[in-house]
């Protein structure tokens, strides 16, 4: 039998303890892929921007670049007209780099049922005006 079963999302994955809500987006027609669900690159762009905004507020440093994305998992599709919430949580702060966990969740306002759409980790590096890494967080304490 070729019946597709939906991907399982554990309670743990939907647990947002220690996460902050950063942004909300309404999925628009020009953000869909040919399969009529949201384009993955759009989700990555939302997460990259949102976690940047979130982390600049945490570390109080405004000039950073994205250096790495890890553990990117697309869990479930999301569709036109759905509302996507982007959440972030600090994973680690090192000398010049800071890493956040990110999650995007589709929320059905009428039922209150949420689905985890994507989770990932993104690392940013503090740079100076010449684009070189700076030890901006050497004395940072959470
Ligand atoms: C980010 C950049 C300035 C780092 O320069 P670099 O000379 O490679 O830096 P270093 O090797 O000294 O590493 C600097 C920090 O980044 C971390 N780092 C480097 N590559 C990493 C990766 N792939 N994932 C996670 N962290 C990484 C290092 O561990 C180090 O962290 P720490 O100082 O907190 O210990 C450089 O790679 C760059 O300009 N990349 C392009 C960034 C970009 O254009 N992004 C897209 C648009 S925002």
Question: Can you offer a commentary on this structure?
Answer:
- Helix content is 17%, strand content 37%.
- The chain is α+β, with helices and mostly antiparallel strands and 142 residues long.
- The protein has one domain: Roll (Thiol Ester Dehydrase, Chain A), CATH 3.10.129.10.
- It contains 2 helices and 5 strands.
- The protein has helices spanning 11-14, 40-59, and strands spanning 20-26, 64-74, 83-93, 97-107, 114-126.
- It starts with 10 loop residues before the first helix and ends in a 16-residue tail after the last strand.
- The mean pLDDT is 92.
- Bound molecules: coenzyme A (COA).
- Residues 65-68, 94-97, 123, 125, 127, 131, 133 line the site of coenzyme A (COA).
The DSSP helix count reads 2
Please give the radius of gyration in angstroms.
17 Å
What is the mean pLDDT?
A: 92
Ligands, ions, cofactors:
coenzyme A
- The number of domains is 1
CATH topology: Thiol Ester Dehydrase, Chain A
Low-pLDDT segments, ≥5 res: none
Which strand order spans the largest sheet, edge to edge or round the barrel?
Answer: 1-3-4-5-2
What kind of sheet is the major sheet?
A: 5 strands, antiparallel
Number of strands: 5
Basic shape:
elongated
The level 1 CATH classification is: Alpha Beta
Structural class: alpha+beta
Spell out the key features of this protein.
2 helices; Thiol Ester Dehydrase, Chain A; 17% helix; binds coenzyme A; alpha+beta; five-stranded antiparallel beta sheet; 142 residues
